[in-house]
Each structure stands twice: as C-alpha cells, then as structure tokens.
Amino acid sequence: MAIKKARISIDRDIEISKVDERIYSSFIEHLGRAVYEGIYQPGQKSADADGLRQDTIDLIREARVPMVRYPGGNFVSGFLWEDSVGPVSERPSRIDPAWMVVETNEFGLHEFMNWSKKADVKPMYAINLGTRGTLDARNVIEYCNVKQGSYYSDLRRKNGAEEPFDIKLWCLGNEMDGPWQMGHKTAAEYGRAAAEAGRIMKMVDPSIETVACGSAFSGMPTFASWEATVLQEAYDQIDYLSLHSYYGNRDDNTPDFLASSVDMDEFIKSVVSICDYVKALKREKREINLSFDEWNVWYHSNEADKQIPHWVKHPHQLEDIYNLEDALLVGSMMITLLRHADRVKIACLAQLVNVIAPIMTSDTGAWRQTIYYPYMQASTMGRGTVLNTAVKVDCYESKYGDAPFIDSVVIKDEERETLTVFAVNKDLENDYEVTMDVRQFEGYQLVENLLLTGEDLKAVNTEEDPDRVKSVAVSNACVEDGSLKMRFPARSWNVVRLAPAAK
Ligand code: AHR
C-alpha cells in the first residue's frame, strides 16, 4: 500500500449555493414492508396507540429526514386516494398491478399525515396521473388543503382532520415515460396532463409547488427529448423536474460500480442544460430546478423478488441488504447531489424503511443498514452552504469515463461556525493524504472526524450483527499552520468537521 496525495482548494466567499434541506429527503411507497411492518405495525412492541413504530421513528429522527415522498412510486399510478380515507373497516382492498400485490388501505392519507408529525417530516405527496387526471388532481388538493365549506374539505373534517393538511409539495405522477407505468404516456400527452393538473391544483392552492416527471433514468430511449417536450408543455405550471437513478454492482466490478456517481453527475448536468434550453426558448426568467426524488443502490433483491407469489399482502419485496461498497457509493452520490446544490433542491433517498432502505425492521427490532451512515451524517452535518472546490487528485478509468479517486464536498455553516468535509476514497488499495488550505477559517480546529471502512467490501449489517459496518470516531485529521491535513483510508467514507477553538 502507498500513501497517495491530493489537494482540495476552497475560498470562503466562493459558494455554489446554500443547501436546501430537502436534499436529504426520503421516500415511502406502498410497496413490500415499507409501510406495513416498516412504519406501521399495530401490536409490535415499539408501536404506539396508533400502531406507529417508535423504533423506526427514532432512527428517522436521528437522521433528521426533512421530508418524505408518498405514496408512490409505481404504486401511485393505479391508486385511488379516496380508498385510503374514511373508516378503516370500510376501506376496500385492491390489487396493485404495479407490484402484483394486494393493498388493504388500512394505512392511508390521515395515518400518513399523523405519522409525518410524529416523525417530524414534511410530506411530498404524489398524485395519480397514470390512470387518473385533472379532476382527481383537483379533488385531492381540495381534500388536503382547503379549510372547509366544500364537499372534499368537509369530508376530510368528517374523517377527523379539522385543519387542512396543507401539503406544499406535489409530484405530478411518477415515471410516466416508462412503458411499465400504468397509464404510461408519450411526452406530449404527459406534458399536457401535467400542465392541466398543475394549473388546477395551483388554482385551488397557489402556495403549492409541483414536480413534473423527467425520465425514469438517463438510459431511457426518450431521455432528453422527453424532458424538453414536457417542459415546453408545462413550464408555467411546474417548479421542479424529477430525476431517478439506481445503480448496482451486477458485474462485481467495484471500481466501475463506485464510478456510478460520475454517471449521476452527467445526468444532472444534462437535465440542467435542458431546463435552461427551454427557459431560453420561452424567454423565461424563472428557472426550473431539479428534484432527484429517487436515488439509491438497487439490485441485490432482483432475483429473490421474482419468486414472490402474486396478490399477497406486503411481502418481503425489494429488500436489498446493503454492504460496505454500497455505502461508499451512496456517500458518493450524496456528495454529487450536494455539489449541484444550486439546482438540485430536492432529493429523496429511495426508500426509507425495508424497501431498498437505510433502515430495516423485523417483528422484534429496527437496525441501521450500511448506507444509513453516509445518509444520516450528510443530513445532520451537511446543512449550510456548499463551497466551490477545485480538487487535484488522480482519476481512474471506468465504464463511465474518468472517475476521481477522491470524491468530496465542502460545506460551511457561517451561523453555526462549522466547516465540514465529506469525502469518499474509492481507491481500494491505497490511503490518501489530502490537504486543504483553511487560513481563511482562522482559529478553526478539528472537532469531529468519522470514518466508515473495513477489510470486507461485502460486509453487511443484520439483526443479529447490526454494528458490523458502522461509522466510528477517529483522529485522522488535524489543522497545522493553516492547513487541514486529512488521511482518507482506502475504500472509505469520511467526515471531517472544523469549528472555532473554544475560547
Ligand atoms: O423505488 C422503487 C421503484 O423504482 C418506484 O416505485 C419507481 O418509481 C421506480 O421505478
């Protein structure tokens, strides 16, 4: 093993953008055991009187998850929201063709809003623009956000919620470009549907923001032209365009897998360009920003999911068990999102509990998967303003092009007086010694240094061994003569925090 060198350069006044805290959001779909057994399990030992699991709420609060997208995902394109309100005993069970399961609707809109309060998360609610349309969009926002005196607002009050839910952020459908989507549309068809749904929803409540569907992933054959067409149709009625990306180490090629964030970076840059192209075409002043509302590693469970019988209730579905290398990529993807904080205002780690999730549950407990650590640490320590950085580091060749061995982001928080570095060392063999001139942060000293690494890239956490892969406090960094010196071990996720020395 050699010790390699890199340098990060910053200027205190050269900023990318303030971080919108919604970049640390997540996602709960009616899928597998995300809702049932994940956040809701009446009778489970940690469940409260409403059947909400306190153990998962504790982990969600620990990660300071600011917002949760709900109720889908592919599920939403066949969902009738009225099924999920009113007396539970009268709610219908329905098949969900997206995931070939049965949804009982025992947990619905009011239960989700109640859970959101307890978990201290804001809702991001998705409407069905697959098998439904404008009228339904009008009805659901009337139900949620109108105070009283109309059919749906009074129905909400009758169902127990006197005050409006006041949901501020709405997804106009989900992955409508995907042929797998119920009610799949062409770009022109979807663009019109999103424009009309967005228009009527903003007529009912002008204070809301809307997210239109971009491509389901950058490899879609219609990618780019889809975005351009949707934006041309719906620009005035939307605030954000969505992006989704999942990666997997299917060929067991860890360097390529860890380079997936290079692909994500390209995807973001392309979508920003398309948004700005349509802005110019339309002579618009207002920018459309990005909502990366599904991102994660997803592949471990693909084969097992093929064995699940159809039309059962909340099976073990999409239950990826994450290892160390997955955590490194999740860290790198989080860093990539933060480096685009000027345009990526919303991002949702997909998903939150049990289904491709940082948190797993059984009937007896809840535990942190490996990917929980970079997500939680970024969310809790990455508030503030992203600084522009120039990084001098070697790259390696990957299937996505040149990938830097060190992926990093630097965030200053002038209010709390902290300077935080998040970094992934993708070199599987060699440690890196990284320096950063911090003379502009006079008097700042190291206050925290956290490390996630290990010999075995495939090591996982389980209920029996929940702490096999976890972040630990180390002393691999120091400030000397105005220079921050950091040691990033081979294959690692690192957090380095500075603050003024106590007076
Ligand atoms: O998160 C799992 C699924 O991935 C979502 O339902 C869908 O939107 C995406 O394809």
Structure description:
With 503 residues, this protein is of the alpha/beta class. It folds into two domains: 3-11 and 387-500, Golgi alpha-mannosidase II (Immunoglobulin-like, Sandwich); 20-381, Alpha-Beta Barrel (TIM Barrel). It is built from eleven helices and 25 strands. It has helices at residues 54-62, 109-119, 134-145, 151-158, 187-204, 225-234, 254-258, 260-281, 302-305, 324-339, 372-381; strands at residues 3-18, 25-27, 67-70, 94-96, 101-103, 122-127, 169-172, 209-212, 240-247, 289-297, 312-313, 344-350, 359-361, 366-368, 385-392, 395-398, 401-404, 406-413, 418-425, 431-437, 444-452, 472-473, 477-480, 483-488, 492-500. The protein is globular, with a radius of gyration of 23 Å. The site of alpha-L-arabinofuranose (AHR) has 10 residues, from loops.
